[in-house]
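Tutorial, part two.
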Amino acid sequence: MRTTVLTVVAALAAAAVLAGCSPSAPPAPSVTGGTNAVDDLTIDECPPGSGRLTSAGSLRNSQGDAGDYLVHVSWLDADGSVIASAWEEIEGVDAGASVDWSASADLGEASASSCTVALTRGML
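Running the prediction step on this input gives:
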């Protein structure tokens, strides 16, 4: 079942994307004029666990013009601290179009108890 993310956690994760904060990943790609696009986001999977994890879903451009998107996935430990992040840049999504996305990270032996996903629309 597909779940639409409409949570405060996603908004906080979007702020982390813009700040580029993650202790175990390179800084997030730059998004010029980035705005929170969580309403365009659908998550099919965002598993907790350890080892190599993949989050996947789709996004739908609800705007009237083509746009670029940055998907930011964060895996969190039991205390809510980010232990791994991954990004997918998606350029030129036509107005009204839907595209699939996926992002993976290798957590090694670290264990994530949860996963969050944020979506930012802007210019990549």
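Strands lie at 3-4, 32-36, 41-45, 52-60, 67-76, 82-93, 98-106, 114-123. In part three we will examine how such features are distributed along the chain.
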